[in-house]
Amino acid sequence: MNAVLHIARRELGSYLNSWWGWVILALILLFDGLAFNVYAVGFSPKYSADVLESFLEASTVTVMIGGVLLSMPTLARERAAGTLALLQTAPISEAQVIAGKYIGALGFLTLIKSLTLYMPALIEINGKVSWSQIGAGYLGLFALGAAVVAIGTFASAVSRNQVLSAVLGGSVVGVMILSWLVSRNSDPPLKAIFAYMALFDTHFQPFMRGRINTESLVYYASVSFAFLLLATRSLKARRWA
Fold first, then answer.
1. Structural domain tally of the chain?
2. How high is the pLDDT of residue 238?
3. What is the reported pTM?
């Protein structure tokens, strides 16, 4: 456990001590601020619940893009710098390396999104939404971010460089987003399968409406575990290649 936390702190520090982490932080906060004022609040009267729902919907974009970009360098950067071999020869397992990298990237994404809490807080102060609704929405954002960062970590584990990692991670996330469109044009039982695969539509909408959906949490946790397991297997295979 100490090894995992050490790697996570090291990964988190790499974001805080590099221009890359601060650029992503600034862009996410900028986009969320614009989305809140232009898309969520808008220029016509709206119910408070609709404003919060629109803001959470827009926030999924920054969570998914930010998750891919933050997880992109986790292992690909180590490979390019020649330091991945040092990690693989250290007295720690591949699972600990993946877990530490994953926790560091997810922790930084969570930190960024926590800085946007003042926007839904303004809705609560000036409107009629509760903190439980806001909490449910942010729980959904965290679960979605956890799944996307896991996908990005897997992409980084199997890629030779960070650009390829971003392309692969973004492609997998894109396919899992667009599967809801496929489900609309499919017949049963494929319709239900594609709808269940979608990262956003069926699984995130309950959180947007302030409802915690246990089935959706299980889905996001399953996606995270599956891709982290694949990343671990890939790292282990490269050690013995």
1. 1
2. 63
3. 0.90
